[in-house]
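Lecture notes, unit on protein representations.

Consider one protein chain, 489 amino acids long.
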Amino acid sequence: MEGINIFDELQFPKKLRMSEKSFLSNLVKDSAIYGITKYVSVIAAIFLTPIYTRIIPRFDYGIMDVFNVWIAFCALLIPLGMIEAMPRLWVDIHENTDTKKRIIGSYNLLLLIGIVVFLGVSLLGKTTFEKVILGSENYETVYYLCVSLIVFQILNNQQLTYFRLGFRRLAYTAVSLGNFFILTVLGFSLVYFKKMSIEGFFWASFFAFLFSLIVSIPLNRSFILLSFHKKTIVEIVRYSLPLLYVILFFSVSEVLDRYIIKRFLSTEHIGLYSVAARIASIPLFFTSSFATAWFPRIFSIKEDNRRKEVLIETNKLALHVFSYILFTVVLFRKELIFFFAPDYFDALNVVLILSLANVINGLGPIYAVGIHLKKTSGDFVKAAFISIPVNIVLSVLLVREFGIEGVAFGSLFGAFLWTFLRYRMGQKRLEIEFNFHPVIYLVIFLIFATLLSQYLDLSLWVFLSKLAIGILLMAWLWHSLKHNKNELV
């Protein structure tokens, strides 16, 4: 089974050599575009969640959550980390057609095998899943829809990755937003007007992902090929599996955080922590958009003699922007809690701590470039093995004294250690003299925002004053970034 290419010729975009100025400009554009669907999804969730919770019975809503968790877990597990590994593997392709066929073909073959195995297990394990997990046999249609959705979501993630690798922002945005609008509009119509409950939601998801694949696969037709190369398959799995392990480790860590709260505090405190975590996840919309754009861009200049300068300037840019995002969330945390969950003001300090943890985590992809370039992804497993146990132990030690703030402090220290270890290991693979002077701004902004938010009450004039401060700081940041951009010419 050697080089089965369905189309005659691969049409990969040519590798671009770019200056730091154009690199940062494209990085910002990519981050903004990749973030559009995330921001729109948040707005839709704010609108749809109260409607769904009023229409869908509580038991059905719980079943829907179980299916959603199952879909997310399987879509993560089945590709074995290969989708996350593709941006790095892309570096080895260059413009060599034989290498493209070998890597992309082997990658597609592995993914296809994983999907076939999953389908077989799903068909054989249906009854067990219904009895053990659901406790009901009344959701047969939903079960088969979710099996289809897992396959569709894996393939959709694959297609979106190809768009990212080719820097095809328009295609990425069109497919993502098309999926989102079909899911939102059709889902609302089937649940609200047709009274189809969770079955309507999953039918909407089915058609939304089907649309995405119908549009994206022809656009990525040059990637439709299969090939079997044992050495390449071993190389792909060796690099991708550690990435999967790390993702799974951190997923387990989040579950353990909740267990610690339940064990030492109460179920009500889990709800309090969860609300705080949701509000503190606002920086994640920006950091995850940055990470989505970052890897294809930085790997595209792997051979560029000035890649170190690019990394240094990107770090400076990220520290400035992420500091401002953190400042804004912390400054307006009272208003955010009042808007989303007015009965949860006890979560004020947790929002602060977890927001800082998320920003620190968001810087990690910059410092880990050396690990990716040298394909030593096992370093991530080592870092996770150290940082996650430290996180858990600290949470257990601090929860008795500080309550949920203690668990949040454990997460914060774990995030710092996780990022620091990636930095140290990355430096061993690719030594770069990063400039950390902007951290001073981060500390000053954080202290200032914390004091203002902590001691000023909720009122219109306070809100307007905070808004004015935020706008002034934004103007300063914009001026600083423009000055920084001009220096790169």
